[in-house]
Each structure stands twice: as structure tokens, then as C-alpha cells.
Amino acid sequence: METDFRVPLIRERLRGFKLVVPVTSPKGGVGKTTISVGLALALARSGVQASLLDTDFTNPTTHISLGVDVEELMPEEEKGVLPVKVEENLEFMSIAFYSKDRALPLRGRESVDAFRELLAVTRWTGKVFVVDTPPGLSDTLLELLRLHRKVRVLVASTCDKMSIVSTKRILEFLDSEKVESLGVVANMCSQPERIREALGIEPIASIPYHEEMPSIEGDRDRLAETLRPYLEKVVKQITSQL
Amino acid sequence: MHEWALAEAVVKTVEELVTSNKDVRHIEVVLGELQAVDEGVFETALRELLEELRTEKGINVQDFKITREEAVFKCMVCGYEWSLKDWSIGEEFREAIHFVPEVVHSYYSCPKCGSRDFEIVRGRGVKVRVD
């Protein structure tokens, strides 16, 4: 019998977290990475030990938003791999430490292999695991749900029609899989009521469009300061579950 | 000591199989050429961890063997197949590929047509067979 030897160790490592929070959306360009980074920083700066993983393997950008130089840094090896300590209470891992900023064309099975490899060898120490996922009902989201059923998904959505339909789809999917959601973050959104009207739910957070956002990506302090007030309710909901 | 985590994963798998009532007598660990796992370091870690499994959890594996598998790649564009004899992995990329073999796609391309859309047919990393 041939078996994927990484899965039992991955499950054990994931059990080390009190909460696993994939930030997801079937649609691209809605701000998953910015929300993931904002949430991880808000948690860390509230005193919660947070771990952040970029699972957008073919186009990792979380390190850019975090201001981490992957050309210079390489995670340390110690009975596995230690995630990079970005600041007190925040550790981070990305395939970009290994692929640098080169293109990484992977097909589905290879994305799953890369994901399992990183989950198996990375020795996290955080309590909340924030996972930035690629657009779509992605391999990495499906893998995470298979490997660890106690996840609380945070859905990112803008307020345009395409994004709202996409959000409806993922909420239906999560419901059918009996996976709990933390809620929907309405991002770059001046009319969050459109989400309420279309989906019958109140967004857990509503972040308006910030013109200066592209210029502050990479500046952790400004990013944290800008996003934290909007994400307070998400942080409270997470900390209440720890 | 990334090899330690790989050995730990193998032992965790054995433990899970045994605790779910599967009979595990022999383990074969196949080391894929691409990941370039240090066999000596891996074997030492595996022996140590299997001994811990025996003393701490009473799970005894009679025997294990380590074999190697040549890495073979196939281009998804032109269909060409090749091995590491046709590519020599540069020293500067070895560490990255050792940790996550898939990043080979960032550094190498098909020797015939130059595409980076290729698959790792075999010899990627560690595999485990138990009986």
C-alpha cells in the first residue's frame, strides 16, 4: 500500500492551532491578500499569536503586502522549517521564499503537493492560522477543508454584481460542506447594503475604497493602522473562539 | 535538519496506521532524486524516531528499507521526457528545490522546447510503502 505520508503529520500540526481561518473568494481582485495581511496584523497587534500562510502558489504576493523581502530571506531549518518571524506575534510562510519572485507554473496536483509539503515541514507556533487562498474554490481551500474540518472561513467580497454572485456560490458551497463561516468582509465597497439585500446577511466588516491603498502595500504600520478599525469585529469574533 | 520533519511524517503515518488496526511490519521509504534528501541524515532520524515510537507507544516496526527513485520529467507542450542527467541542478537552486520540489518550475524548462509547463513524472520526493 502506498500512502501520502505527510497527511498525519499535517493534521497534527493543524491541531496545534486554536483556529484556522482561510480568507477566500471565488472571484479574483476582491482583496483577499490585503484582508489576510490586515487581519493577521490586527490579531498580532492585539496580542494574539498569529501565523500567516500564502497559498497562492502560482502568484504569491502576500510577502509584498507585508513588506517581506523574499530575495534576502530564507526560513531557518530546525527539525523542519521555521516560519519567518515578521514581528512580535506574527510568523509567516510563503512558497515565494523558495521560488523568489519568478513565475511558478503549477498544475492542480503539483499545487496540492507543494501545499502538503509546506504544511508538513513548517513548524508553526501561532494560535490563529490565517491562510490567504488563491481565487476560486481552489485546490488549497478544498485541501484545507479535507485536512482540518474545524476551520472558520472568512469570505471577501466587493459589492458589484459579479462578486456578489460569486460570494453567494461560496456560501452555498460552505453550507453544503457544513463548514462554518466567520462572515463576509465587504471590501472596497461604498454600498455594503447591496450584500445585505442580495444575500440576506450583514457583512461582518465593511472596508471602503481607499485611494492610497496601493501606495501603502508593503508598509506594515500604515496598512495595520488603516485596516484595523474595520476589522475589529472580525478580531473580536476570532478571539471569542479561542 | 529538514530531513527530520520528513522522517517524523513517516513515523506519524506508521503510528496512525497501527492505531487504526493496520498491520505494519515493513516500511519502504522511496527517496525521489529531485528533492535530494540526505540519506544518512534521514536514516538516522528515522531510526531514532522509530525507537521513540517503540519505547513510548509500544509500536514496533520490524524493518525498514530506503530506496531511491530517478527523477523523470515530461513536457506538457512537446511531450519530451528527460531526467536529471539532461539537467544539472545549479547549486544556488538546490536548497529551494530540496524544500519544495515544485519550485523546479521556477528555475528550469524543457530541454527541447523551453517550456516550463512540464510534469514531474516520478522521483519528486519522499514516498512511503508499507506492508
From TrEMBL, chain B:
Keywords: Metal-binding, Nickel, Zinc. GO terms for biological process: protein maturation. GO terms for molecular function: nickel cation binding; zinc ion binding. Coiled coil: none annotated. InterPro entries: HypA/HybF. The keyword Metal-binding applies. It holds the Pfam family HypA. It comes from the Archaea. PANTHER family: HYDROGENASE MATURATION FACTOR HYPA (PTHR34535). This is Hydrogenase formation protein HypA. It comes from Thermofilum adornatum 1505.
